[in-house]
Amino acid sequence: MFTLVVPIQARLPELLDSPRHDTAWVVTATLLSAAVITPIAGRLGDMYGKRRVILGLIAAMVLGSVIAALSQEIIGIVIGRSFQGAIVGAVPLGISIMRDVLHTDRVNAAVAFMSATLGMGGALGLPISAIVTQTLDWHMLFWMAAILGTVVFVLVLLVVPVSVLRTGGRFDVIGTIGIAVGLVALMLAISRGNEWGWTSLWTMGLGLGGIVVLVLWGVYELRVEDPLLDLRVASRPSVLLTNIASVAIGFALFASNVIYPQLLELPIGSGVGFGLSLLASSLIVMPSGLMMLLLSPVAGRIGTRAGPKLLMIIGTAALTLAYGFTMFFMTEVWHIFIANVLVGVAIGFGYASMPMLIMRSVPHTETGASNGLNALFRSIGTATAAALVAAVLAGYSVDFQGVEVPTAHGIRLALVLGGGAALVALLTASFIPARPAPGERSPSLPV
Q1: What pTM was estimated for this model as a whole?
Q2: Cβ(2)–Cβ(119) under 8 Å?
Q3: Where are the membrane-spanning stretches (predicted)?
């Protein structure tokens, strides 16, 4: 879903006959809906059944894909992309189902493998989308998503077992409204601040207003009997530090997804690019996803034998190394290839470690909500990277044959931001307790 529109993103103003600041909503809408729906879907899954909620999220994605496929104007595309963003909530719920139904000895390996498939989806989606865009009508991207979603819906219905674990109590409607309002305001300020101006009334008002709403929401959640998210569980050291590291990991990984393709695709005459086509650059980036798949069995074994903290340290160290390598070596295509292999190692180990660290420290009744909150923190890191890296590359650009392209200084500054975030993630991971406190330990998972 997130790489689906990358091949047509630059052409959206022409395809939809709309200004670029309007077509940016095609990406922003998905980001907003994913951020809001993910933690809410996690709580709904804990209360009413995880598979049931996953089926609802897949159905929303299929509906959004059909709406976008049938739309010729921007409003329909934005609405469709908003529905498509719901599918992100299925990821933490899927991981939670595995905890509920698999034997303890198999959970870590299963989580590592599922985390690897996330990278494979993005890595394979980019070249496939590029081929479709170059050979067929661009609406076929959404028809393909609708068909794929329908197949997945049927497979989940037939194959995935029903998780019988349920959380009692009443659904927190006020808490749901509060987190939705606060997140939408904050994420809007982050994702559109570069365009509106970081000191503009809209950006400052939405950003500060979102923070105030989220603070008030937190106070309310601590006092209500059946909260949407149990913040006392979320404040446990293992959970809190993992979520903080997730913000930095989300930032660093998304920054790499912006920087490396630009290096590959920028014109040779610009002084910083290799002039590759979208398809060729996609093939250079794709090995990162293949590395994730190859390393998933290794990640599962390390997580079981040595603990998920070591996984996160290895992953964040590989991510830091990828940025450090690129700072000194980015004059050949194979340099970018090596960096993307390191990114694949980082995602393969880092993404596998996060749900393992969360689930070993939370009760069964909080699995869906806690994993959903972790996914939300990654989304915040992603949105922040999208805004800041775009601002840096736009601020340090020159005119090349009528097109604004980033300078070498802008690329290096963006690499510094991404590498800095990776280093923060590594340092944070080092402070995560090797084992949760006895009162916080999950009785069903190895630590």
Answers
A1: 0.83
A2: no
A3: 23-41, 53-71, 77-98, 110-132, 138-159, 171-190, 196-220, 240-260, 272-298, 310-330, 336-354, 375-398, 410-432
